[in-house]
Specification:
The complex is a heterotrimer. Chain B is an all-alpha fold. Chain B is built from eleven helices and two strands. A two-stranded antiparallel sheet of chain B has the order 1-2. The chains are: A mainly alpha, B mainly alpha, C alpha/beta. At the A-B interface, α3, α4, α10 and α12 of A face α4, α9 and α11 of B.
Amino acid sequence: MEYLYGIIIIIGLYVILATSFNLIIGYGGLVSIAHPVFFALGAYTSAVLSRDFGAPVLLAMLAGTLVALLASIALALPSLRVSGDYLLIASIGFQLGILEVIKNVRFTGGPGGFTNIPPFLIREFGRESYVVLVLAVMVAVILLVWWISRSDYGRAMSAMRDDELAFSSIGRDAMWMKIAIFGLGSGIAGLAGSLYAHYFRFIAPEQFEILQSSVILTMVVVGGLRTTWGPVVGALLLQALPQAISFLHLPPSVLGPIQGILFTGLVLVFMFFRPQGLVPAKEVWRAVQRPTGKAGENR
Amino acid sequence: MQDTTIILQILWTSLATSTYYVLFAVAFALVLKVTRLFNFAQAAVMTIAFYTAFIAVQWLEWPAWAAFLLMMFMTLAASYALERIGFEALRQRGVSVMFVFVFTLMVSEFIAYVAMLIFGTWPQTIFPTIFWPVTIVGEIAVSGWDIPAMAATVGALAAFFAFMRFTRTGQFMIGVADNPDLAELYGINKRQIFLAAMLIAGAFVGLGMFLYGTRAQVLPQTGLSLMLFAIAATIIGGIGNIAGAAIAAVILGIIQNASILFISSEWQGFLLYIFLFLAIVFFPNGLRLPRRRGRFGTATRDIPLGRDAPPAESQA
Amino acid sequence: MAGVLEVRDLSKSFDGIVVASHIDLTLKSGSIVGLIGPNGAGKTSLFNLISGVVKFDSGTVLLDGSPLDRLKFHQRVRGGLSRTWQHTRLFPSLPVIDNLLIATHDYPGERLVNVLFGRRRLKAHDSVARDKAVGILGKMGLANVADDLVSDLPYGQQKLVGVARALMGDAKCLLLDEPMAGVEGQAYAAMQRVVREVAESGVAVCVVEHNIAFIRDLCDEGVFMFSGAIMARGSVAELIRDPQLTELYFGH
């Protein structure tokens, strides 16, 4: 049972990561590979605060989310000020740089990892309660991104992706919208990180390497950018894959590279042959509800 | 006296080790200038180059020159395949710059994982040793690697700049870089020029990786970090300005090596990320150097980057 | 009377190529100024400089007496300086009505906070904006295509939608970049009527246009530009009669 719970939680967390990344790359049109690092920042902040500073877990999780959010804004602000293209470059540097810091400073436990993270809910209410918590957060995140994409904000995001200069020409501020999107998406990744830390109770830098960037990117691209269900389908499918491989009992030195080859290879195949993903997005923006049904309704 | 010697020694060594940084930066800057692609797949080419030489020397026990030739061949073949199979198809589909960027990044990671699967995750070098005989010149230790590496780099760069200056292909490249559509009108074959740029860049990467792999240890992921260095140099040098990228690479190389005087060695690698960040924050359009018009050093204006990107709307 | 928009001694060059040289221009409330000149004279570039798409090297731009120089493009627009584009630049993934709805002066949906916590504000804005958008579309004869995608409309109607979108933001000054290029038939008359009505409502209008008949019928004043500089001002009729200017216009 414990094994199954672990898998459900992992899948739930990846759905959260993929959905929040879809907000950034799909709806926001912002390309970054640093999503795992915000996941890491959430996990480490929450873990360090609760174990070494005695903070209550719930508060530590909140702090983890906030740190990821603030760090993402610190990354996005200078790069987006120049141009969207710089965000990707900066995110690569940020991803590698932060991991370098985590490996080199003492309070994170260094390359060996951070152990004995205080558990949350499990002792009092059993593992099931944590499964429920993760799934609840997952549903909330899916609904949130769905709601945002169909709201007035979604309309603005659509316009911004269509033509940024025209978007400015009607008085809209693309830069701050991008920063808000990036901040929200990364904050959610931070929350996922803190949820991870207090269930599995061990985190190490290698869990947040660039392999994770390709994993999350693959989930979104394979599933379908700019759709509600694409990232969910992608996360489910691509979590099943490594689980299946792990049954082959390969040594870890082979398992890691094979997973990497699979994930990056899948992205490449999809980019070439099915860029719209498994769940293709509609090209026209749609509101939650159309106020007046007219000619355009049956489109 | 002692201090001066140490400083001179560090300066010399960092000048020597900046050779491969220069080659990588020039390769990256050239492809960016001509094809307007952030070619992260250069890291994949680096990985292929290194492991080809590694196999030739360590497994097949070929002599160094034969290994070098095989390596260059593989590097050019990889660059050719990348351009003809990858970039051309994507260009025809008219995908965004970002899409191509993600594509190149994924190619690099893919190749890195393949290398990891075959060669494992421990560091390798092309020759069994990276220690070179040392001669003392004045009070400075000059290794047997330094002079050939510098000579090869300077020779390659001189040949390259002469090529750009005096051959038709070179001038066409600049023409395509400045305005691809106009160049097309004048009958320049864009396809050929893009390919030429990729191949020249490939040759630089091959030479650079040979130098790197004979002096430092390489992991499957090393290509990626080396790329960040090249990108930082390209940004600081001013996008579109190849000579600027080369100079910036030398300066960054010297700073990184000289930093050993001030900071502990495990943080030395971290400097790279600081460079990158500073480059983006403070020099997004490059350091402003006096411009010479119509010469090779002139920055291209309409690469879609930077603050003063010209309006997409045509001028009336 | 001081102008709504004052451009003073504006200059800009790109790598030694002069696109604007000591431009002085005043746009007054309720009047329409026509900017004419051959291709490459710097008319659109002037619009880009005034609206903040491109930064200028020297000079100043005042809107209602306050300088715009430090403001970004979108901030200038919110300050009341609106513009259209030669190639419409509508949002293809949005229906016509939504192209207009996001273009209001203060679109609350731009802020994530409002979307998450300010539903009442969004609703209030939506109903006001919708009325306004329907009104503007009605005036242009576009009421029946409000729910269509912009890419399904004929080009002339797309141009009208572009102007309609620029009118959503309560502009004090409107810069129209070749509104008539590619526009024929009914849309032509509608465009002429709309621009005139906009000016009559007190907006300062400036039009870049190659359709001389349109400019002559519409504009109170003409400004002739050539290679980044203003060569002559006067009534449009005068300008087109001037043989020297005609030579400049057609000689290139």
